[in-house]
Fold this protein.
Amino acid sequence: KQEVTQIPAALSVPEGENLVLNCSFTDSAIYNLQWFRQDPGKGLTSLLLIQSSQREQTSGRLNASLDKSSGRSTLYIAASQPGDSATYLCAVPPNSFGNEKLTFGTGTRLTIIP
Amino acid sequence: DAGVIQSPRHEVTEMGQEVTLRCKPISGHNSLFWYRQTMMRGLELLIYFNNNVPIDDSGMPEDRFSAKMPNASFSTLKIQPSEPRDSAVYFCASSTTSSQQFFGPGTRLTVL
């Protein structure tokens, strides 16, 4: 059974700093990996989807990397801003195209200090 | 596109009552997902549909829960009878096959 872990559970950094969020998964046979953010009382917003054949994916100040062999992904946020404060979750489906049952990590609650 | 639409946004009901949550996926998406989020258990997939057909309902907790997707633009999640432990935020999401999932704003359910 796939298990997804995100450490730390909470992180506070001063505005302007670069930071890295971590995601680990136990079964490396994944099809892709997705990063989401969730604001308090809101739904999830998809940030990046990185395919198993890719090593990284970029969107603006966000960069996600994937190392399947070690079962790890990182989300790098450059020049952090207070608006980046949210809970960040990673999620993986099983390794079969069309099977979309995502397993989510428990999330990292990020606070950017102005 | 307006994104995934869910209704109601908030629902407060008494134990034993029937609850129906509604979802309209993004037009053109062929997969639809129902999730439940609680502090204790995090985010759990209850059921998902592909082309209106239920594919995996192994996350549905009990027979009290049922979901339908009568057409490509509408789905319901029903709880009958509801219990206090069903209190949670229920999310609907949609996607094209194996692509990014887009979530609705959720329905916050409180069962007294």
Q: What stands out?
A: The mean pLDDT of chain A is 92.
